[in-house]
Amino acid sequence: MATEIAALELNNTWTVCTLPPGHVPIDCKWVYKMKFRADGSMERHKARLMAKGFTQKEGFDYFETFSPIVKLTSVRLLLVVAASKKWHLQQLDVNNAFLHGDRHEEIYMQLPPGFTHKGEHHVCKLNKSLYRLKQASRQWFLKFLEFLLAHGFTQSKADYTLFTMKTPTSFTALLLYVDDIILAGDDLLVLNDFKSVIDQQFHIKDLGQLKCFLGLEVAHSSAGISVCQRKFALDVLIDFGFLGAKLVPTPVE
Asked: Which residues pair with 154 in a beta bridge?
């Protein structure tokens, strides 16, 4: 929790002030979860501050909320093309992605639990977007879209989360799912250079070669790329209590 608060303050997410007359602050809460690796082992514990967006009022606290989401067809197609052309596949995770979104509405929020500040009747005036705000996903996407277009990428008309950049010496494709990114291209040096550019702007976690994305487990070999959903299938069996069920040759038996 202390790490998350430090990141929020470093990003200038809010300014502590007295609540102006006529404004009602929204509430917030901490959400705790465990993050797992592709093999199912636990990677780390996470604490994330969430705004209670359900208390926002449309037309006052927010207006537009739509944000595109990646098509699974695009993910599969990118993997097929990368395998056939022997492209490099890299994966990134943007740290605190929604905090980078520019906030346009005037929003006030109660002080987060565990956040100490001298004085009474103070609230947080949000300077940046925050998780679970109605418009948070849209504001983050627009921010990243602006960044990609400024660096020479072209947005696909078939899938708004797919971006490509072609130069005389290289081709790069980028696929975005909220804060998870796939980078694909024929020049690893170009990919690494662009990862550094993204990191300077947004601060990323470089996950290296693509291994898991949207439940798809990706394995690389000299023969190409193979994709499976072993962990997802096991999780489904566990959730429905069929992990120890008897095996049968056909579904109807």
From this structure: 164
Give yes or no for a contact between 211 and 217, defined as CB atoms under 8 angstroms apart: yes
Sign of CA dihedral 237, 241, 246, 249: negative
**Residues in Cβ contact with 248 at an 8 Å cutoff, skipping those fewer than 6 apart:** none
Beta strands in 110-158 (DSSP E): 122-126, 154-155
- Residues 209 and 220 sit within 8 Å (Cβ to Cβ): yes
User: pLDDT tier at 42 (50, 70, 90 boundaries)?
Assistant: confident
Residue 113 above 90 pLDDT?
no
Tokens of 178: 């909220």
Q: Which amino acid is at 89?
A: L
How far apart (Å, rounded) are the C-alpha atoms in residues 181 and 97?
11
Q: What is the DSSP letter of 2?
A: H
Amino acid at 203: H
Q: Name the phi and psi angles at 90, rounded to 5.
A: -120, 155
Task: Name the 3-class secondary structure at 49.
Answer: strand
Residue 222 has pLDDT above 80, yes or no: yes
* C-alpha distances out from residue 148 to 64, 129, 194, Å: 22, 19, 10
Structure tokens at 63: 């207006």
Name which of 152, 156, 177 is nearest 165 in CA terms.
152
Terminal Cα distance for the chain, rounded: 51
Tokens standing for 26? 């929204």
